[in-house]
Amino acid sequence: IASSSSFATSTEPSTCSPCSSLSLSLSLLLCLMEMLGTSDRPVQEDLRWSCDVGLADKICNFNRHGAERLGYFMMATSFGKEARVEYEDRGEITFYDSNTGKPLFVAPRGRSFDSFWSESVSHGWPSFRDEEVVWENVRCLPDGEAVSVDGTHLGHNLPDFGGSRYCINLVSVAGRPTQQQQEDETSATYSEKKYDTKT
Q1: Is pLDDT above 70 for 136?
Q2: String of b and e for 36-56 (b: at least 16 CB within 10 Å)?
Q3: For the stretch 74-103, what's the b/e string if a residue is b when 16 or more beta carbons lie within 10 angstroms of its beta carbon?
Q4: How far apart are CA 119 and CA 15, in angstroms?
Q5: How far, in Å, CA of 177 to CA of 68, rounded?
Q6: Which pTM does this prediction carry?
Q7: Among 9, 127, 168, 188, which residue's Cβ finds the most Cβ atoms within 10 Å?
């Protein structure tokens, strides 16, 4: 993961000026891309764990290589304390796209919370393994960049002796679930408890 200092500010003229060679619809699309970057929407205004919205917007939507600073998730957010509480309450933590609210990672899976936390601390960013990725909503590009299917920059795959290791910016996965997502999760939890009661 590159440092956050790698963010660049474009000095090129705006693409939003009228151009006779472009149709109105294409001009509007270019304007939207310039305003919102790689996603078709801005980051949510009320991110989890007190993540910085401005930083999240830069990293999620106007960036391919930059990252939040090393250890940001430990030093500048409430993630450590709140994540452990969520884990103790639910057995795992769901990380949602900061733009769309779709689930992207669920951890820890196949290991303890302490193992997940220790690995993340040692590398400086929340670190996920293959079984913790919601592949329906995540893609890993040939250059190792991890992105959501909706265009949100997440981080990079930096494999180690244990296999693929996805080092992810917390600000990219600090979204809140959509109302539909919440309803689906509540329904799934109810069904699991009902099944457990019968067995």
Answers
A1: yes
A2: bbbbeebbbeebbbebbbebb
A3: bebbebeeebeebbeeeeebbbbbbbbbbb
A4: 43
A5: 22
A6: 0.78
A7: 168
Whether 34 has a pLDDT exceeding 80, the answer reads: no
Q: What is the pLDDT of residue 102?
A: 97
* One-character DSSP codes across the chain: ---GGG-----SPPTTS--TTS-HHHHHHHHHHHHHTTSSSPPPSS-GGG--HHHHHHHHHS-SS--PPTTHHHHSSSHHHHHHHHHHHHSSEEEE-TTT--EEEEE-SSS-HHHHHHHHHHHTS-EE-GGGB-TTTEEE-TTSEEEETTS-EEEEE--BTTB--EEE-GGGSBB---HHHHHHHHHHHHHHHHHHHH-
The residue count for the chain: 199
pLDDT of residue 114: 97
What is the rounded distance in angstroms from the CA atom of residue 179 to the CA atom of residue 177? 6
More confident site: 12 or 113: 113
Least confident piece of the model among 80-89, 117-126, 133-142, 185-194: 185-194
CA distance 149 to 117: 26
The single-letter code of the amino acid at 74 is M
Which tokens in the block code for residue 96? Answer: 């949602």
